[in-house]
């Protein structure tokens, strides 16, 4: 998720229910450069991985090498109303 305040998703778990429609247990937080990974375990045992970064993560001039790797390894935007991720996909293609 690209956001102006990634820390808000690290410092609290209030967002989990609205994101996945059910309660979940945060089981892992890890930093990958400017992206913070949060893994949430559902009652079924499945885990959902979320990544939070500032909007600048999707900058295309220049594209960060780590970002390019993520995009080339299968980035699939689920919700991209401002087309930031689509623009990034186009720039890396």
User: What structural class is derived from the secondary structure elements?
Assistant: alpha+beta
Q: Return the average pLDDT rounded to an integer.
A: 91
Give the DSSP E fraction (strand runs of 2 or more residues).
Answer: 15-25%
Q: Give the strand order of the largest sheet, numbering strands 1, 2, ... along the chain.
A: 1-2-3
Keywords for this structure?
single chain; 93 residues; alpha+beta; 3 helices; 3 strands; 23% strand
In short:
24% of the residues lie in helices and 23% in strands. The protein is α+β, with helices and mostly antiparallel strands and 93 residues long.
Please give a structural write-up:
This protein has 93 residues and is an alpha+beta fold. It starts with 15 loop residues before the first helix and ends with a helix. Helix content is 24%, strand content 23%. The protein has a 3-stranded antiparallel β-sheet with strand order 1-2-3, with no helix packed on it. It has 2 domains: 53 residues; 39 residues, no CATH class. The protein is built from 3 helices and 3 strands. Strand 1 and strand 2 form a beta hairpin. The longest helix is centred in the last third of the chain and has 9 residues.
Helix and strand layout, with pairings?
Blueprint: H1 16-20, E1 25-32, E2 35-41, E3 47-52, H2 65-72, H3 84-92
Antiparallel strand pairs: 1-2, 2-3
């Amino acid at each position: 998720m690209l956001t102006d305040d990634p820390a808000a998703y690290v410092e609290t778990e209030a967002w989990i229910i609205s994101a996945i429609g059910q309660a979940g247990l945060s089981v892992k937080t890890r930093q990958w450069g400017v992206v913070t990974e949060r893994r949430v375990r559902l009652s079924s045992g499945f885990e959902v991985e979320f990544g939070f970064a500032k909007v600048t993560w999707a900058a295309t001039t220049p594209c960060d090498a780590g970002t390019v790797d993520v995009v080339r390894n299968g980035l699939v935007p689920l919700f991209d109303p401002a087309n930031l991720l689509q623009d990034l996909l186009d720039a890396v293609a």
